[in-house]
Amino acid sequence: MPYFDTASAAPLHPVARQALLAALDEGWADPARLYREGRRARLLLDAAREAAAEAVGCRPDELVFTSSGTTAVHAGIAGALSGRRRVGRHLALSAVEHSSVLHSAAAHEAAGGSFTEVPVERSGAVDPAAYAGVLRADTALACLQSANHEVGTEQPVAEVAALCAEAGVPLLVDAAQSLGWGPVAGRWSLLTASAHKWGGPAGVGLLAVRKGVRFAPQGPAGERESGRAPGFENLPAIVAAAASLRAVREEAAAEAVRLRALVGRIRSVVARRVGDVEVVGDPERRLPHLVTFSCLYVDGETLLHELDRHGFSVSSGSSCTSSTLEPSHVLKAMGVLSEGNVRVSLPMGTAEADVDRFLDVLPGLVAEVRERLGAPVSAPPSPTPVASLVVDALGRRCPIPVIELAKVIGEVPVGATVTVLADDEAARLDIPAWCEMREQEYVGEEPADRGSAYVVRRLS
Fold first, then answer.
1. What angle do CA 52, 55, 56 make, to 5 degrees?
2. Closest to 218 in 3D by CA, of 209, 210, 228, 204
3. What is the pLDDT of residues 131-151, one digit of tens each?
4. CA 386 from chain center: how many Å?
5. pLDDT digits (tens, 9 = 90+) for 354-383
6. For strand 290-295 and strand 277-280, is the pairing parallel, antiparallel, or unpaired?
7. Residue 295 is among the residues annotated as catalytic for this protein
8. Could you tell me the CA-to-CA distances from 199 to 35, 204, 242, 444 in Å, in that order?
9. CB 406 within 8 A of CB 435
10. The one catalytic residue among 295, 320, 398, 435
11. What is the side-by-side strand order in the sheet with 277-280?
12. Half-sphere exposure of residue 242, counting CA atoms within 13 Å on the CB side?
């Protein structure tokens, strides 16, 4: 069964498995003790730290191991903000950061601080000049991911890092998605990552803090990991994480070329065979293994279930797969379609034949889901067009409001409007995105007795 969701968790690398088993036998003792078992454990921990630091591009004494990537993010942000509290309490971050960064920002705001989200372009990337524009005299920390976890767009980290350094603001980079492919360029100050994203075991994170960065660990102090990650080190998992990071880096250059070609094929074939689809993210400046596309008139959850039934494990940022019924904050920030959203992230070693079979199966499944939902095949103009229409889609989840809009847009003359009444939050994103794709004018959102009224003007 092809597993195409390595952006969530990569399969355990064979080197990680071997290192984990070996370290269970050799690295079970307390590395802080001076007897031979402790010294042996210390040697393993030091070797793992040196290997990880080499991959990150920092000094071994600048890097600590945490219990997860999320823990690394929370500890990094809290420690940096506390260390620079005399400067101010303002935090800058992009609008498409991982939820761990957003949760840290919310906690900071609840404690009396403030934060500013930098908007992104439709590709998902920030404009370095726009990022520099939110930096203030009281900005204590800036955050920017190296590459986006939902759409694969690489961020201009080196450019932003240079601007932050010029402003005297440290930059924390969440490198969870990209570290397995190579080091992060630029003059970053702090960096976090997560081992299960590159084929290491779950439960190991990295936090690197450059020398000279003011940092005050929060919470009860600990004696281990420079006081920045309290608790007993999970040494076998740490050894496996470091060993697998070194192994995937040795394979990364060749695999990046091969997987980039496969992802390029997915991008072009999906756009050609499926129809009414938007391939999102930067087409060039992107991770080599990840592609995301959104299909009009498709229930994302149903499509994922159908793909799973045909043997393909993929994920989605669609609101239809979320218990909160909220559209993905990443897709929302980009202003792209969220309905029928599919993220494909290929693990190293993905067979070309599996990608070909996916491309053979996908168009038929999309057509089946659209037919099941009553999506329009086309929207022919009515012989007697009316001046305007109101579509009541209250109580109905996307993509139904968009489907109903598509069914009636041809019934009004060019220049007239269709108003869609909807109370699904996803409609706020998907109706403007539909207008962008179908070359119609999105007039705007108006208040309604229930939900909102979304006004669309027919242009063609």
1. 85
2. 228
3. 999 999 999 999 999 999 999
4. 44
5. 999 999 999 999 999 999 999 887 544 445
6. antiparallel
7. no
8. 33, 11, 10, 45
9. no
10. 320
11. 277-280, 290-295, 341-345
12. 22
Sheet holding 114-118, edge to edge: 63-66, 205-209, 190-194, 171-174, 139-145, 90-94, 114-118
Q: Rounded to an integer, what distance in angstroms lies between the CA atom of residue 196 and that of residue 69?
A: 9
How far is residue 337's CA from residue 44's CA, in Å, rounded to a whole number?
48
| Helices 352-373/235-273 angle, 10° precision | 60
Query: Tokens 């219990």 correspond to what residue?
Result: 67
Structure tokens at 197: 């994203």
Q: Which two tokens stand for residue 42?
A: 């210390």
pLDDT in tens, 146-170: 999 999 999 999 999 999 999 999 9
Collapsing DSSP states into helix, strand and coil, what is residue 143? strand
Q: Can you tell me the distance from the alpha carbon of 202 to that of 21, in angstroms, rounded to the nearest whole number?
A: 15
- Nearest one of 287, 401, 278 to 331, comparing CA atoms: 278
Q: What is the pTM of this model?
A: 0.91
Q: Do the beta carbons of residue 339 and residue 398 sit within 8 Å?
A: yes
**Checking DSSP bridges between strand 139-145 and strand 290-295, what pairing results, if any?**
unpaired
Contact of 124 with 130, CB cutoff 8 Å: no
